[in-house]
Design brief:
Number of strands: 0
Protein name: DUF5651 domain-containing protein
Order of helices and strands: HHHHHH
Largest sheet: none
Number of domains: 2
Distance between the termini: 68 Å
Oligomer: single chain
InterPro entries: DUF5651
Radius of gyration: 30 Å
Helix content: 55-70%
């Protein structure tokens, strides 16, 4: 088997192919727009068209090696992205905002309470710690997590495991 042929792409290779698609579109756009504005010569436009042709040949050859499912995945990705140029300062600001945003977790209330219930099953069941010694108590209280209802003196979230008895036992 030819070591260059493979019928699928890794994620980075898919991104590279998406960049090729963007490059082809960019070369074609520049060729037409700049020629129409009169800022490139016919020879310059010919160079751009030649570059576009070779980019297309490469792209078509590579996609012809891929299986149908991979080609569809690639084309769907290509339809769903834009290439933009950003100044470094803008990128830095966007990264800082993303970091700030990642400091918070957003969940629907019922999902959050399900998570809390799972955490309580591990940490609060039969717990003897006093509430001031527990990191979870303040988090639960600040987020209005329902109390256990057991009324234990050490913590309002602590509860006792209830043994279920089988009928006839």
């Amino acid at each position: 088997m030819n070591k260059y042929k493979r019928d699928y792409l890794h994620e980075q290779e898919r991104k590279d192919m998406m960049m090729f698609a963007a490059l082809m579109g960019g070369v074609e756009h520049i060729s037409n727009a700049w020629f129409d504005r009169g800022i490139i010569t016919k020879d310059m436009r010919k160079c751009l068209k030649t570059a576009h042709t070779y980019l297309m040949k490469f792209f078509e050859t590579k996609t012809n090696e891929l299986n149908d499912k991979e080609v569809k995945k690639l084309l769907d990705k290509i339809k769903d992205f834009d290439v933009v140029l950003l100044e470094n300062e803008k990128i830095k600001k966007m990264r800082e905002e993303a970091e700030k945003e990642n400091q918070w977790v957003k969940l629907y209330r019922d999902e959050f309470e399900d998570w809390c219930e799972e955490i309580m099953n591990v940490n609060c069941k039969n717990c003897k710690k006093y509430h001031s010694e527990c990191k979870l108590h303040d988090i639960f209280a600040a987020n209005r997590v329902p109390e256990s209802g057991f009324g234990l003196n050490n913590c309002r979230y602590a509860y006792l495991e209830i043994e279920k008895r089988r009928r006839g036992a």
